[in-house]
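Good morning,

Attaching, inline, the backbone tokens for the sequence recovery test we're adding to the shared suite. The designed sequence is right after.
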């Protein structure tokens, strides 16, 4: 919920310095994990990292379309951004699980510190002088900027469609991120390494989709790509649910389902920036991308516990079917807003 505040104030600062400061804050916080001795220390550091991430990510996303003005170049940049996000959110998760089998966890905190520090160095090397200050044409009022992004989402049909696709992607993603450990360790009774491999396969599907999206964008609109990805996720969940009901559950089936799910997940996520860019003006990017960040995380906040709760009370097949039904309903409403 902090990102609208970041969107409201970010244009008052030099974008490069703003992003570097957020990376430095996260680097210091990550390094501080080494010295945690009390639970409240951990809470403070986690809050600090997530606040800095909420301040960093939407402003970083809003800077990309300002740097890459050509639609083709911007689509390629979005694909690279998606690959980086998948490596951070999915592959690093699996890799950390593997490394913890052999290394002290403090070394992972040092690695995180180095990662944020390298990010700050890379940003410092980027030349984007036209992002230094807000446009003179825009009213620089904090209260107006704070709610501008949400107001744009409520007033523009395509952005309202994105709101429902945020629900669809969180429904699909929460099943993978919350319940894969249960499917692998409890249902299949496999090892922690098998869990890491399963997440890596999902990440591989994500990266494969990110690579081909620039080519798909030449023949399909952004909205159709996203709806295709969401529909693919729904079909995979239904197919896996019926397999679990009718046949023996084997690891290969889960790996195949998760690879295809990763493919659909990234098809759904990656083109969001193209829709925002098309319907928003340049001086609104910070606020609209911040609104997207907040609304998407609100959906995740709802779907994470729901997915885990459904898995606990009804099992995997009915959880998959429920989430698939939720995605289908979201797709239908989103398609109406996209006029597909």
């Amino acid at each position: 919920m902090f990102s609208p505040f970041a969107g409201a104030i970010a244009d008052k600062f030099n974008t490069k310095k703003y992003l570097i400061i957020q990376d430095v804050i996260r680097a210091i916080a990550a390094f501080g994990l080494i010295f945690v001795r009390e639970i409240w220390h951990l809470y403070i550091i986690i809050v600090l990292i997530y606040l800095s991430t909420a301040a960093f990510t939407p402003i970083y996303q809003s800077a990309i379309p300002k740097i890459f003005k050509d639609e083709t170049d911007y689509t390629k940049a979005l694909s690279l951004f998606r690959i980086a996000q998948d490596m951070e959110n999915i592959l690093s998760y699996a890799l950390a699980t593997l490394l913890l089998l052999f290394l002290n966890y403090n070394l992972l905190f040092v690695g995180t510190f180095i990662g944020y520090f390298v990010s700050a160095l890379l940003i410092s090397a980027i030349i984007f002088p036209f992002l230094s200050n807000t446009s003179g044409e825009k009213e620089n009022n904090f209260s107006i900027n704070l709610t501008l992004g949400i107001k744009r989402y409520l007033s523009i049909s395509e952005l309202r469609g994105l709101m429902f696709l945020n629900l669809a992607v969180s429904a699909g993603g929460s099943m993978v991120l919350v319940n894969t450990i249960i499917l692998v360790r409890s249902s299949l009774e496999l090892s922690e390494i098998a869990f890491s491999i399963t997440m890596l396969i999902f990440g591989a599907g994500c990266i494969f989709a990110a690579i081909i999206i620039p080519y798909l964008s030449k023949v399909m609109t952004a909205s159709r790509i996203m709806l295709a990805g969401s529909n693919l996720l729904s079909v995979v969940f239904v197919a896996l649910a019926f397999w679990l009901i009718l046949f023996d559950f084997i690891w290969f089936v889960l790996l195949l389902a998760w690879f295809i799910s990763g493919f659909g997940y990234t098809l759904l996520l990656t083109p969001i920036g193209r829709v925002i860019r098309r319907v928003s003006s340049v001086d609104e990017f910070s606020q609209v991308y911040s609104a997207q960040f907040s609304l998407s995380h609100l959906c995740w906040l709802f779907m994470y516990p729901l997915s885990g709760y459904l898995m606990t009370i009804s099992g995997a097949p009915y959880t998959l079917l429920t989430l698939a039904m939720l995605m289908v309903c979201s797709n239908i409403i989103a398609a109406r807003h996209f006029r597909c």
